[in-house]
Amino acid sequence: MDSLCSIALFLSSLLLFLAKSSLSHPLCNDLTAPFNPQQRVTFCQFNGSVCCNSLEDLELQRQFKAVNVSGSCSLFLKSLLCSKCDPFAAELYRVESESRQVPVLCNSTVSSTQSLANVDFCARFWNECHNFSVTNTPFASQAGDGGNNTSTISDTWKSRNDFCKIFGGASDESSVCFTGQAVSFNSSKATSPSPSGICLEKLGNGSYLNMVPHPDGSNRVFLSDQPGKIYLVTVPPEGSGEVLKIDETNLFLDLTGEVHFDAELGLLGIAFHPDFLKNGRFFASFNCDKVKWPECSGKCACNSDIDCDPEKLDSDNGANPCQYHSVISEFFTNGTYVRPVEVRRIFTMGLPLTTHHGGQILFGPKDGYLYFMMGDGGSKGDPHNFAQNKRSLLGKIMRLDVNNNVLDTKAISKFQLWGNYSIPKDNPFSQDKNLLPEIWAMGVRNPWRCSFDSERPSYFLCADVGEDKYEEVDMITKGGNYGWHYYEGTLPFNPSTSSKISNSTAKIANPIFPVMWYNHSEGSASVTGGYFYRSSTDPCLYGTYLFADLYAGVIYGGTETPVGSGNFTSSHIPLQCASDSPIPCSSETESSATSPPLLGFVFSFGQDNNKDVYLLASTGIYRIVRPSRCNLHCSLENTTSLPPSQQPDRSPPSPSSSKRLLNNICTLVINFLANWYFILVVM
C-alpha cells in the first residue's frame, strides 16, 4: 500500500502540475510593464505600448537582416522576432515557468480567448520556413548541433510534428500562444454570472487589521490588532452558527510593549516564511517610538542622501521628525511556543511624519521574497516628492531577501542597507543604477492592503489611497512607476495655488495608471485593497477582485474582461447579512435580513485556507457566505458549493491520526487517477 500510495501521489502531483499554468496580464519578458517608447520603433510596429525600445528594435532588425531570408518566410520570421516586443511577451515566452528563445507557436485549434483562434501558426511556419538555415535565428540554441552553417529547420527537426512538439502550444483559459500577430482577445466571450449581491455572516465583534491563514493548511488563522496583539484562532465551518472564539488571556504573541499605537501607527502587518512549517520563522511590521523604546532607532528617511534635513521639518501631531519608526522584526515559534523577543531586526527606518507609511508585508508566492509596502511619508501632496525620488524608500514597494540567516555584512556595507536582509539580484536596480536596491516599484502615495492572486501570481494588486479626488487599485510590476505625486488616479495632480509642489509631469516617461479607480463621492475617501475571490462558497464571485472604501462601508468588485487582458471594470456590490448569522450584523432596531450590515470602517480583508474572504471592520469580522443564505440568486451555487455538513474537516491533524489520514488521501488519489484514466483513455 505504501509503495502504491507513493506512486499515486507522484502521478497526481505531476498531473496537477501539467494541468495548471498561469495567465499573465500585459507584461514584458523582464517582468516589467509595457511602455510607450520615447522614440518610435520602426521595424516592429505595434499600436500603443510595447516591450521594446528603439535600440532593441534596431537589434531585432539587425538580426533579421543577418539571417538573409526572402520570400514569404521572411514575413513569418519577422513576426516571430518581433514577438519579443508584444505587450504580452512574458506569456508568449512563458517566462515565469521556463526559459525560451522562441514564443509558443499556436499549433492546434484554440479557444476563443484570442481573436485569431483558428490560425495554426506553427504548421504555417514549418511549411514556409523549414528549408532555411537556423543560423542567427532564435532556433539555433535548441538545434542539436548548435545551429551550424548548413543546418536547416528540417535537418534538425525531421517533421512538422517533431518541430511543433518542441515549439508549439495552444491558447486556452490559462495561456496564450503566438499567431503571427499581436496578441488580442475576444471581448465577446461569455463570462460567468455576475453576483446579485454579497451575503455575509458576522463571526466576531473585535477590530483587527490582519488575518493570515495558518501555513499548515488547517482551519486556523492568525489575527492581529493595531495595538500589537496576535491571536491564533480556529475558524468555525460556514453556516455552523458558531463564532470566532478569541481568548484574550492566551495570546500567540504580545507586542504591545514595543508597538506605538495611534491613528495610522501600530502593528500593521504579519507574514509567515514560505518554509514556516520547517523553520518556524515569522515576521511582524510595526511602528515604534524611540522616546519610549531605546531599541527603536534607525536612520531617518529624511536625510542628506536625498537633500532632506529633518531639523527643518515641523513637528507632526506632537512628534518630532523621525521619532516614530517603521520596523520589521523576525520571530520564531515551534508551532505552539513563541520566543517572546525578536530573533532579528530585519528593517528599521525613521518616519519624517506620522502618516502615509503603509506597513503591510507579504511573501511572494513564486519568488519567496518579502514585499514591504511604504507610503510617501505624509503631508499633503508629498511636498518633498519622496515618492518620485529614486534614492528614497518612501512611496515605494520594496522587495527584500530574508532567506539567508547569515548576516550579509558586505551587502549591508555596499548598499548601506537599513537592516539585516539581502538584495534580490533581479531587483530593478540591476537595470537602473539610480534606484536604491530595495525598490521594486515606486510612485505610490499610501499603499493600503495588497495581495497576490492565488491562481495567477503575476497579478499583484495594491490599493493606493488618494489625496483629494481619486482612489485607485494598481497592478504592481517590476520597476513600475505609478505616478504620484504627479498623477492622482489617471489625471495630473493639481495642488492648490498656494502649494510649493510642482505639478509638472515631464519627469515621468511612462507612468502606469491604475486598473481600477473611483472618485470621492457618497462618503468615499480612502480605498482598502482586498483579494481575488477564489473560494467555491460563492461561485458567482469567483475571479472577482474585491476591495472597499474605509469610510463608505461599501464593497467593490473588479472584473477583468476579457480574462488575461489586464482591462478591469469595477462596480459597487450590494451587501446583505444572513438571517442566521451567529451575531446580528445590524443594530437591534433594524432587521439584519433586509438592511445592509453596519460595517463601520472597513480596515482590511482576510483570507483563510479555504480561500473564503473576510471583511475586517471596526464593527467586527464578517465572512462571505453562500448567496442562498441571503436569498440571493447564483445559478452556479448548487453545482459548486457544499453545505456545512458536507464540507471537509480542516482542523489540524493530530500525530495519532497522521497514518490514517495518509491512507485516506492515498485512497482518494488512486480513485482520482482511475477516473482520469477512464476519461482520457476510455472516453
TrEMBL record:
Q: Which UniProt keywords apply?
A: Signal
Query: What Gene3D superfamilies would the database entry show?
Result: TolB, C-terminal domain (2.120.10.30)
Q: Which InterPro entries does UniProt cross-reference here?
A: 6-blade_b-propeller_TolB-like, Glc/Sorbosone_DH, Quinoprot_gluc/sorb_DH_b-prop
Q: Where is this region: Disordered?
A: 639-658
Domain (Glucose/Sorbosone dehydrogenase) ranges:
211-552
Where does the UniProt annotation place the signal sequence?
A: 1-24
Q: Please give the name of this protein.
A: HIPL1 protein-like
Q: What is the species of this protein? A: Camelina sativa
- Organism ancestry: Eukaryota, Viridiplantae, Streptophyta, Embryophyta, Tracheophyta
